[in-house]
């Protein structure tokens, strides 16, 4: 017990400079369906987010829920296909996507954050027209590409000490249609509009790996481009790094691709010297706190 206390005190004193650096920072966290896992993993994630808020960070959670959408579509016997990592979304599918993401998944995260002593409010891209979309590609149906972001509602929630939890469902330009947005894309668009200090993309690998399988801890946008051109970055990692480059272009200071399966992944990234995962950093903005 005593030893635990000393270890905790040492950890806190080591974390202090980082805590100070992040006071007032905006950190957007993409929490994917595969990273959600069981109730313990969900509580662990919620504890990290609540702690961030308690030390003065403004976190925004943008979630996915692909496996949960697959499960309900399967029960309803609705077939589903992906093209270039995005779900082909017809009228019946978008109805299910909205129900699952803005209903079950969004509220499970809100409940977990409340359970850990935070205050959270769930919303989708429809609320206060947070994310207005255009069709991404006629082949994909109701898949949205964010074209207009109205982030005032997020600023209002920050001021009230409330953690926004955003489901990646958007409204059409006519204010009538519903669009399914890839979770990474939605998180990147929100981070870009907020000019966030950090965008954390939680995934199921330790970070971006080189040809020998080693995680590359620091990358510039041009490193990412060359690793994509030579095929080192492939598959599901492509939409993540593309999101990262776009977000940095829009004024995000740094994007980190980290392993969401690791306990305290977000805190380890923000509040330790070496962080974790792969940091893709803007070359035109100074590091946070300098
Ligand atoms: N260079 C790379 N480094 C790490 N992972 C890579 C790389 N290239 C391709 N990948 C693949 O990208 C996957 C992550 O993308 P994805 O499965 O879509 O993640 P998520 O489900 O978390 O959104 C990894 O599991 C890995 O198989
Ligand atoms: C257009 C598109 O593909 N939308 C995703 C939205 C959910 C998501 O992104 O979930 P994960 O982060 O868990 O993969 C989908 O329908 O699965």
UniProtKB/TrEMBL annotation:
Q: Which reaction does it catalyse?
A: N-acetyl-L-glutamate + ATP = N-acetyl-L-glutamyl 5-phosphate + ADP
Which pathway is it part of? Amino-acid biosynthesis; L-arginine biosynthesis; N(2)-acetyl-L-ornithine from L-glutamate: step 2/4
Q: Does the keyword DNA-binding apply?
A: no
InterPro entries in the record, alphabetically? AceGlu_kinase-like_sf, AcgluKinase_fam, ArgB, Asp/Glu/Uridylate_kinase, Glu/AcGlu_kinase, NAGK-C
Q: Which residues bind substrate?
A: 65-66, 87, 180
Keyword terms, alphabetized: Amino-acid biosynthesis, Arginine biosynthesis, ATP-binding, Cytoplasm, Kinase, Nucleotide-binding, Transferase
Q: What does this protein do?
A: Catalyzes the ATP-dependent phosphorylation of N-acetyl-L-glutamate.
The protein's name is Acetylglutamate kinase
Q: Domain Aspartate/glutamate/uridylate kinase spans what residues?
A: 26-259
Q: Which domain of life is it from?
A: Bacteria
One GO biological-process annotation of the entry reads: L-arginine biosynthetic process via ornithine
CDD domains according to UniProt: AAK_NAGK-C
Localization in the cell: Cytoplasm
Q: Which gene encodes it?
A: argB
Report the EC code(s) recorded for this entry: 2.7.2.8
Give one Pfam hit by family name: AA_kinase
Q: Which residue positions does UniProt flag as site: Transition state stabilizer?
A: 30, 240
A GO term for molecular function: ATP binding
One GO cellular component term of this record is: cytoplasm
- Which SUPFAM superfamilies does the record cross-reference, listed alphabetically? Carbamate kinase-like (SSF53633)
Q: Member of which family?
A: Belongs to the acetylglutamate kinase family. ArgB subfamily.
The lineage, from the top, is: Bacteria, Pseudomonadati, Pseudomonadota, Alphaproteobacteria, Rhodobacterales
Work out whether the entry's keyword set contains Lipid biosynthesis.
no
